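Entry for Double cubane cluster complex. Fields follow.
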Amino acid sequence: MNDNRKMWESLGLNLEAHDQLLAALGPIYHEVYLSQPNRPKGMEYFDFVVSDIHGIRVKELLEHKAKGGKVVGTFCVYVPEEIVVAAGAICIGLCGGVDVAAEEVEKVMPRNLCALIKSFMGFKLGKLCPYFESCDLIVGETTCDGKKKAFELLAEYAPVYVMETPQMKKDMDYAMWKDELYRFIEKIEELAGNKITEESLREGIRKIDAKRKALKRLSDLRKNVPSPISGKDALLVYQIAFYDDPERFTQMVNNLADELEERVKNGISAYGNGEGPRIMVTGTPMAIPNWKLPHIIESSGARIVYDELCTGERYFQDLVGDVEGKSFDEMVDALARRSLEIDCACFTPNDRRIEKIVAKAREYFVDGVIHYSLQFCDPYTIEAFKVEKALKDAGIPVMRVETDYSHEDVGQLKTRIEAFLEMVSEKRA
Ligand code: BJ8
């Protein structure tokens, strides 16, 4: 038995089902990623991370735990990883992007539920995720109803702590959220056995701000024509941001951005065959390995240049900012304000998201927008109508897509997307 298998066994994984999962990932990754022409050399690191997706990083988590460290799993970009890092713990984003253990999941929750929720429950119930099994605490939130109720069920299988996220963004909501961050600080201190000091909080904020800054730098480079990186590659980097070591990851993203700057100077396209329509994707997050829609879009000749997603801009568009000389309370305040800048459809009203989508579509020279919602996700599916109207009013072509993680609708989606891209190209000509 090789070292990885011993490690997975020690975590109690269902080895047979886990083998099948990894075996399925390889060919998909090859088709979606490795077959792309003209990829930046800097993507080799991210390919390596995926090629050993349940190996080295899990080993690092277990080494950390062996020294008395803690691992905290999260599902939402509102959970402030700065606080986890400040306590000396490791923060891992856990969202699942693939259908797993459906039979077990449907024994404890309804079939007609968002695929992302069913996926993370499947990873837990099917004992398929070494990250999940390494966590000392799972942090949920009260964003959408589906997640809120799923965390009650998840608590029967793992230690769960739920943060109460507000539903509006009034002054009282900021105050409530700031209190909630203090409650979270206490919980994390108790778990980690470490007091979060002014200096450790400042350091935690600096580390995570540096990561977001690197991601923002990468994203800004996607404004260029021709695009120096494919949309699929950018998405992969955003997805890995949730579980890689933050300092190493920041360095790798900055290296990649250096290379992309050179490409921009020399007019090198990631696609190598001219520029197809420039597309923005907006909507529900795409957790790894959910590459279905981006693959359809880019293999139909378009270029995704902006992701208004939590696995995208919503994760890194705002920084906490300079915390030099700030008191503990001022830093907690800045953390609360930064996270409430994120415009998740769980908030009401959420007009700012819509205004941003229109503004960014112009800033990134977007020819069309594809609104992506997971089926049964009420917040995004309902908000899609307002997004569509605002874009149409602004003269920007838009299409709505509702799907899940199955591959049954790939043919149908491809036909619809090709028709949309044809229309967009005619308008552009
Ligand atoms: S901040 S988008 S990460 S909640 S897709 S589970 S909303 S039914 S994931 Fe999200 Fe935080 Fe918002 Fe971002 Fe519910 Fe919709 Fe499923 Fe969703």
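NOTE: Residues 198-221 form the longest helix (24 residues).
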